[in-house]
Amino acid sequence: MDRTTITGWTREISRLLSDRAGVEGRSLGDRLDRAAPALPPEILSRARFLAAAEAVARMPGRAEAIDMERVETAYVTVQSWLMAEEPDELRHALRRALWIRRARSAATILIAALIAGVLWREVL
After folding, report:
1. Do 51 and 27 meet the contact criterion of CB atoms below 8 Å apart?
2. Taking the complete model, does pTM exceed 0.90, yes or no?
3. CA atoms of 105 and 23, how far apart (whole Å)
4. Blockwise average pLDDT, block size 10, the chain, 124 residues
5. Structural domain boundaries in the chain
6. 85: phi > 0 → left, psi -120 to 50 → alpha, else beta; which?
């Protein structure tokens, strides 16, 4: 197993995120950032490890330091989890996480505006 193996695995995980969860992005890291709210912490950490291993594999002097057993375990775990989940459920979880994030942002803006309004009224 070498750099091409790791690259193939990261492309496979990236493709699964795109096909099954509808997550887009230029790289696996970008897709993981977008899918992070809907992924279980263990799956997310293993997928991030796989993306980091790909980055290290690109460095000629560092490629030998990669623990291929750990990389393979991460790949198998993430791949099997993505294949086991229903695509509709993944997409629904991602949409729900996106709306929760938007609602928090809107609530933060409204609270900040309310505080600014109260402070403004007391100054005048």
Report:
1. yes
2. no
3. 21
4. 82 92 89 89 94 86 80 94 87 88 95 94 76
5. 3-123
6. beta
